[in-house]
């Protein structure tokens, strides 16, 4: 029986997203899942944010994956929050979720800690250094930034109402843990 798929997304990845995917997500999901994510996002049309309907065999052939390795890669992308999968009859809809930004990923209680446990402290510190810098001191400065109301005098504003979907990027929301999670064990391992 033939199985088909199509892909949609809320936006396209940037070079910063690619850096986060490569350096932070890839050590957790592996090269097959990383390659699958990149293949799926590149099948998406830049104007419609969706792909054509294709046979799943296309993915197996282009990525040189067998069905077991492909299923494992899908599972990892779903578990890490990068992919949501829907099925209707023999048609899979893969909705690509945008990666977290580096700050949210590294400071996430689960993802940051899991990455550190997987790659070790020295490698984690190396990866962390690619996304951090010494903060510029604001000591002695006073914030004098004006608010919107200070500058603009607005009349009654009408709230935008439309039945149309406004295209735009929707950032990933992180991972979802369905089963009970022992936060005590996590807190014990946090620095």
In short:
The protein is α+β, with helices and mostly antiparallel strands. Helix content is 45%, strand content 10%.
Multimer state: single chain
Estimated radius of gyration: 21 Å
SSE class: alpha+beta
| Order of strands across the main sheet | 2-1-4-3
Q: Can you walk me through this structure?
A:
The protein has helices at residues 15-43, 56-63, 67-79, 102-107, 111-119, 121-129, 148-151, 183-189; strands at 4-9, 54-55, 83-88, 91-96. The protein is of the alpha+beta class. Strands 2-1-4-3 form a 4-stranded mixed beta sheet. Helix 1 packs across helix 5. It is globular, with a radius of gyration of 21 Å.
Helix and strand arrangement:
Elements: E1 4-9, H1 15-43, E2 54-55, H2 56-63, H3 67-79, E3 83-88, E4 91-96, H4 102-107, H5 111-119, H6 121-129, H7 148-151, H8 183-189
Parallel strand pairs: 1-4
Antiparallel strand pairs: 1-2, 3-4
Helix pairs in contact: 1-3, 1-5, 5-6
Question: Key terms for this structure?
Answer:
4 strands; four-stranded mixed sheet; 8 helices; 191 residues; alpha+beta
